[in-house]
Design goal:
With 738 residues, this protein is an alpha+beta fold. It has 26 helices and 27 strands. The strands form five sheets. It has a seven-stranded mixed beta sheet with strand order 7-9-6-10-8-11-12, sandwiched between helices. A seven-stranded mixed beta sheet has the order 22-24-21-25-23-26-27.
Length: 738
């Protein structure tokens, strides 16, 4: 029969892929079978353009407890019979359409990935990108997303302990909403997404199934936006109160010996949950969609199988023990329904009240075609990298004026307006909450702590995808080092435009290569993640924006530092440089260059060996109690970093003079591999010894004291003034111009 082009378009399938389906099946698929293929062969589920590249994330790290990518989330051993489970995932496209529900269900989905492994969720983080707040639509998206994150996260009792937010023109209308969740479990409680052996029972638990989210994985997350498409029905609606109960019930069920596997119904709903579980056990399944509880009448098998209704889990149970397991969910007042069983024929046999609806080999459904393209480096990258930054004139504005301006920009200003809406103390594990370089949580029952952060910088990756990818990993691990933690695992969310364009594929490939090389340098494997492609509309894509979530381990959680200067008379030292001498290229890709000169240009640079040595030195200084504070030098450059440490500590700093070279590059350049630390002068000999042992350069730059930030005759500004600029910047930007 002739191919239905509208059906293919709804599923984001190409005619070539349809022909491959017909060839593999040996016949034309019916509508439901086509829907199954469309969902599982989508970019969101099948990773068509990214899977051939993700093989660069290789590791034989002994902490790994599951193969990265093989389960709902990654798992790493932290000793004492405990493991951390973590993952970051995008909900970009839904949030662009319905910001509150898009962000809320993003949180709900990532949390289900964690407790599906048998882990208790203990922390949430996020990484967000929006267009400039001068535009009303971007303010609407920003405020809606923040409300969605807090509205869902606060209700489920999981603390939101950290994250990052940036703003830029490329994200106008294309917000990036990446949600990360971290959980903890005992080794013996680990559960996997498997169907197990023949005869095992498939039990659907949680919310009833509706029509929300149909084509979410295939039609929404695997294509670019078009103005003439109505996409609101593809956005799910969440119920955080039901999710809270679901967490507790599933964690109890996970400890039952007759529960074989647990799987979240996320993207593509029942289709992906059931087929992936069957594929993981090399088995088949038989399901009757008439047994799926529904909240809407007249739903077809197609709608039931592709629905992405939230708060649903698939539980696989040993045959004959269904009543025992169902009683667990009964105690939590959750509905559970037996909808099918595992078979040995390798086929997905979908029935509707006993009548055949689809019959397809599971192996065909889960074997999506993969595309290894040839990326092409665009000429404009060479043009931007070759800009001679030494020809840029020194600013006519004073360092004080520029500092206040940068501190008030939404990218650098305090994000307290955001995180004060999040509950970051629930569960009573939070030791360092939002606002620092990394969050720190205690591991109850031990002396250990874990540190968590998310990082990304689209400007760097735009200018040099490979170096930019390395820099993001380096910054994430540097943030962990600042609190005294050793990086042990990473999770990534790869946010890019249309990969079918050669220049976008070039960005994707080289960013992944940079992430992979840096992760190996820090011996911190990428254990899980998500790929979000087609982030563009009207032919304009976002900056290449890989985001890294990083996990650090602390043997003693009491050995930690914050970012604030502590006492008058402390010496302030810059790790990573042996003098304040700077060069114009330090301005490459900087916030200063874009805000002051309206330029995104230059060639970002990173010495990975130096980065590792500096982080080793910082971590050792923290753990041995030599230093009182540590703060990563990144967005805004050195002077912004110093101002933030003054604001946090409520005390001033006198910077030594003179400043050699260009003061703009010295103050506002974003050279990598630098950490600002403070310590008593009596500890300077220990600092020198430890840095020498790690071959980490350093220089003394000033003394803590007073109520102003000064640099001789170049700069003198009160801490109250810079605090006001930094603290009020975001809220001022949210107020529309009159």
């Amino acid at each position: 029969m002739p191919v239905n082009k509208q059906a293919l378009d709804d599923l984001a399938l190409t005619e070539r892929e349809y022909e491959a389906i017909v060839e593999r099946l040996g016949r034309e698929p019916n509508d439901l079978e086509l829907g199954l293929f469309g969902s599982l062969w989508s970019e969101h589920c099948g990773y068509q353009h990214s899977k051939p590249l993700l093989g660069m994330f290789t590791s034989d790290n002994p902490r790994l407890m599951v193969t990265p990518g093989a389960e709902n989330a990654g798992v790493v051993d932290i000793g004492d019979g405990l493991a951390i489970v973590m993952k970051i995932e995008s909900h970009n496209h839904p949030s662009a359409i319905e910001p509150y529900e898009g962000a809320a269900t993003g949180v709900g989905g990532i949390v289900r990935d964690i407790f599906a492994m048998g882990a208790r969720p203990i922390a949430l983080l996020n990484s967000l990108r929006f267009g400039p707040l001068t535009e009303a639509k971007n303010r609407h998206l920003f405020e809606g997303v923040v409300a969605g994150i807090s509205g869902y996260g606060n209700c489920i009792g999981v603390p939101d302990v950290g994250g990052e937010i940036q703003f830029g023109d490329s994200y106008s209308g294309n917000p990036l909403v990446n949600a990360m969740c971290v959980g903890i479990l005992r080794h013996e409680d680990l559960r996997r997404a498997t169907a197990g052996g023949v005869g095992n029972v498939l039990m659907l638990v949680g919310a009833d199934t509706g029509r929300d989210g149909i084509h979410g994985a295939s039609g929404l997350a695997s294509r670019t936006f078009e103005d003439d498409r109505e996409l609101r029905p593809t956005v799910q609606v969440g119920n955080p109160f039901l999710e809270k109960v679901l967490i507790e019930a599933c964690l109890e069920a996970a400890q039952n010996e007759h529960v074989v596997g647990i799987q979240d119904l996320g993207a593509a709903g029942l289709t992906s949950a059931s087929m992936e579980a069957a594929a993981n056990s090399n088995s088949g399944l038989e399901m009757d969609v008439a047994k799926v509880p529904r909240r809407e009448t007249g739903m077809t098998p197609y709608e039931v199988m592709l629905s992405e209704s939230q708060e649903r889990m698939l539980i696989v149970v040993h045959e004959g023990h269904e009543v025992e397991v169902a009683s667990i969910f009964d105690r939590w007042d959750l509905r559970s329904d037996i909808i099918g069983h595992v078979t040995d024929d390798g086929n997905a046999n979908i029935l509707d009240d006993g009548q055949p609806s689809a019959y397809v080999p599971v192996a065909l459904l889960t074997d999506a075609p993969l595309y290894r393209l040839n990326g092409v480096k665009p000429e404009w990258i060479d043009d931007l990298q070759s800009v001679d930054l030494s020809t840029i004139p020194l600013p006519s504005r004073s360092p004080e004026s520029i500092l206040k301006m940068l501190l008030a920009t939404p990218n650098i200003a305090s994000k307290e307006w955001v995180y004060q809406q999040y509950d970051h103390q629930v569960q009573t594990n939070t030791v360092i909450g939002p606002g620092g370089d990394a969050a720190v949580l205690r591991v109850k029952g031990t002396n250990k702590g874990i540190a968590l952060t998310t990082d990304g910088n689209g400007r760097y990756c735009y200018l040099d995808p490979y170096v930019g990818g390395m820099m993001i990993v380096a910054e994430a691990c540097r943030n962990l080092a600042c609190v005294g933690a050793e990086p042990i695992a990473l999770t990534d969310c790869l946010n890019f435009g249309n990969p079918e364009k050669p220049e976008i594929y070039y960005q994707l490939e080289n960013c992944i290569r940079g992430l992979a090389d840096a992760s190996r340098a820090f011996d911190a494997p990428v254990i899980s993640g998500n790929v979000s492609l087609y982030n563009e509309s009207q032919g304009t894509g976002v900056y290449p924006t890989p985001v890294i979530g990083a996990l650090g381990l602390m043997d003693d959680v009491s050995q930690r530092t914050g970012i604030g200067f502590q006492e008058s008379g402390e010496v302030v030292v810059l790790l990573g440089q042996d003098s304040l001498q700077s060069v114009p290229n330090d301005l490459a890709g900087s916030e200063f260059l874009e805000r002051v000169h309206d330029m995104v240009a230059g060639k970002p640079e990173l010495d990975l060996s130096l980065e590792v040595r500096v982080q080793n030195a910082c971590r050792r200084l923290v753990r041995e109690g030599v230093i009182n504070s540590a703060h990563d030098c990144s967005d805004g450059g050195l002077l912004v970093t110093l101002a933030e440490s003054c604001i946090s500590g409520g005390i001033g700093l006198a910077i030594q003079e003179p400043i050699p070279g260009r003061w703009d590059a010295a103050f506002f350049g974003e050279r990598q591999s630098r950490i600002v630390i403070s310590l008593p002068r009596t500890q300077m000999s220990h600092l020198s010894e430890m840095c020498a042992a790690e071959n980490a350069p350093w220089c003394e730059i000033g003394t803590v004291g007073g109520d102003s930030l000064t640099a001789g005759t170049m700069l003198s500004v009160s801490i109250d003034t810079v605090k006001k600029a930094w603290k009020n910047g975001l809220e001022t930007a949210l107020r529309p111009a009159s």
